[in-house]
Amino acid sequence: CPIKFEFLNYTIITSECKGPKYPANRCCAAFKKFACPYAKQINDLTTDCASTMFSYINLYGKYPPGLFAAECREGKQGLKCPKSAPTR
Fold it and tell me: Where in the numbering of this chain does the GPI-anchored protein LLG1-like domain appear (predicted)?
């Protein structure tokens, strides 16, 4: 994966998505803010970007397994990122 997920700042997720209830609206909005700039790489199944990203999200946020996959669905293609999401 060309993105160095180990060096990214996860506070955009950890500051908004908090237990014990993990409100889907706040968790998913924060997840999209974090992940959408990297959507192209995350969705490229020839890389390990998605699994690497989720490993670090769970490491820093101590989230239940599958929280974002279960709560943040917007269709068959997963999350709908805004077309204007800047790539980093």
Answer: 4-80
DSSP class of residue 3 equals: S
Cis bond before residue 20 (omega within 30° of 0): yes
Q: Are 61 and 13 in contact (CB under 8 A)?
A: yes
Q: Give the closest residue to 8 by CA, choosing from 72, 56, 54.
A: 56
pLDDT tens-place string over residues 25-56: 999 999 999 999 999 898 888 999 999 999 99
Q: Where are the domains of the chain?
A: 5-71
Question: How far is residue 22 CA from its own chain's centroid?
Answer: 14
Q: Whole-angstrom Cα distance, residue 26 to residue 80?
A: 16
